[in-house]
Amino acid sequence: QVQPVESGGGSVQAGGSLRLSCASASGRTFSRYAMGWFRQAPGKEREFVAAIRWSGTTTDYADSVKGRFTISRDNAKNKVYLQMDSLKPEDTAVYYCAARSTDYSGPSSNKDNYHYWGQGTQVTVSS
């Protein structure tokens, strides 16, 4: 099974950018897995951010990040990315990378449809 591991989090001022990366700690390839990014702020439920089909041909975004965040993947490098631009203080959260079972090729906004989760990386946006 895959074991996602996130990197690239940090602190940034409002209006700034960060790029999160997700790699496979187990070394097993991500290339056949639909992948997603979720986030969880203190005291709130984990929420959907973005997702991508295993082939990269289909993406989905939460309304709150459309036009500001971009999910992408490089299957040759076995990585998934989340480019975050025009960051706002309300984007502050722990961001998680997740993989679906290979039985499902498409992206999903439902966290219950993801089977493998990373430990998360903190993103803090100050005003």
General description of the model:
The structure is a single chain. This protein is mainly beta. It contains no helices and 11 strands. The chain has strands at 4-7, 10-13, 18-24, 35-40, 47-52, 59-61, 69-74, 79-84, 93-99, 116-117, 121-126. The chain is globular, with a radius of gyration of 13 Å. The chain starts with a strand and ends with a strand.
Produce a short descriptive summary.
The chain is an all-beta fold and 127 residues long. The chain is built from no helices and 11 strands.
Keywords, separated by commas or semicolons:
127 residues; mainly beta; four-stranded antiparallel beta sheet; 45% strand
Shape: globular
As a percent range, the share of strand residues is 35-45%
Name the average pLDDT.
95
Query: What order do the SSEs take from the amino end to the carboxyl end, as H and E?
Result: EEEEEEEEEEE
Helix content: under 10%
By secondary-structure content and strand pairing, the structural class works out as: mainly beta
Radius of gyration: 13 Å
According to DSSP, the number of beta strands is 11
- The stretches of 5 or more residues where confidence is low (pLDDT under 50) are none
Number of helices: 0
Largest sheet, described in full?
A: 7 strands, mixed
Quote the distance from N terminus to C terminus.
40 Å
Helix and strand arrangement:
Elements: E1 4-7, E2 10-13, E3 18-24, E4 35-40, E5 47-52, E6 59-61, E7 69-74, E8 79-84, E9 93-99, E10 116-117, E11 121-126
Parallel strand pairs: 2-11
Antiparallel strand pairs: 1-3, 3-8, 4-5, 4-9, 5-6, 7-8, 9-10, 9-11
